[in-house]
């Protein structure tokens, strides 16, 4: 169960949660996430820290305590101030059940992580999360025909350049779509062989190394140099 898909979210009829945010969150689903770790909480051990790709947007109400969050994840759009949600905490809804391999539309309780330092904590601190409601999640098995990619360069929230093991390049470009400006990634195969196909799911190699210095300017320069040998062409869009 390395990856899960959050299929839907609904308000908690027993009370609590974020009823006002359900429509906004639901409009951004389904979304995939990597199960980074299991983290014990005050009442049970079965909490899971899930890193989202792409992150969600959460517009809190006016009485929300922004001091509980990290300022670097604050943003603003036409709808007002919002918070980038890079991770969620999920746990099984029914006592005695547990997240498991092969699960389909499994009912869970879901909380938005509003302080990402919780990912490094030994135990779950509820004050670093905002309980949202009840959700359905499914296991995403790793495909046997996936392609391993090595990241070469990126511009955060704009584009990421990868190289395949076969020497081709894959460019991931971020677009903002819909009334809530939801971030969506689109993949383009560049300078690939005409017979090469990229499957719908692209997995980064766990030992992928960054071959270009961390400076954004040097990354852009190196990315341009890699393509000076000829014009880049889009072979396939995913």
UniProtKB/TrEMBL annotation:
What name does UniProt use for this protein? Uncharacterized protein
Upper lineage is: Bacteria, Bacillati, Actinomycetota, Actinomycetes, Mycobacteriales
């Amino acid at each position: 169960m390395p990856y899960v898909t959050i299929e839907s979210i609904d308000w908690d009829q027993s009370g609590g949660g974020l009823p006002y945010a359900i429509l906004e969150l639901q409009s951004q689903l389904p979304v995939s996430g990597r199960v980074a770790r299991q983290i014990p909480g005050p009442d049970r051990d079965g909490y899971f820290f899930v890193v989202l790709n792409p992150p969600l947007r959460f517009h809190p109400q006016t009485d929300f305590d922004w001091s509980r969050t990290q300022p670097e994840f604050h943003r603003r759009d036409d709808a007002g101030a919002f918070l980038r949600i890079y991770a969620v905490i999920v746990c099984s809804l029914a006592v005695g059940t547990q997240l498991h391999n092969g699960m389909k539309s499994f009912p869970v309780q879901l909380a938005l992580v509003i302080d990402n330092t919780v990912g490094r904590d030994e135990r779950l601190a509820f004050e670093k999360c905002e309980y949202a409601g009840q959700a359905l999640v499914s296991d995403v098995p790793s495909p046997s025909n996936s392609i391993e990619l090595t990241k070469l360069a990126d511009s955060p929230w704009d584009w990421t350049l990868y190289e395949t093991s076969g020497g081709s390049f894959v460019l991931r470009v971020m677009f903002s779509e819909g009334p809530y400006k939801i971030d969506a990634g689109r993949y383009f195969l560049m300078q690939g062989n005409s017979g090469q196909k990229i499957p719908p799911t692209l997995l980064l190699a766990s030992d992928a190394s960054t071959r270009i210095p961390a400076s954004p300017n040097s990354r852009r320069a190196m990315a341009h140099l890699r393509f000076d040998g000829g014009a880049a062409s889009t072979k396939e869009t995913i």
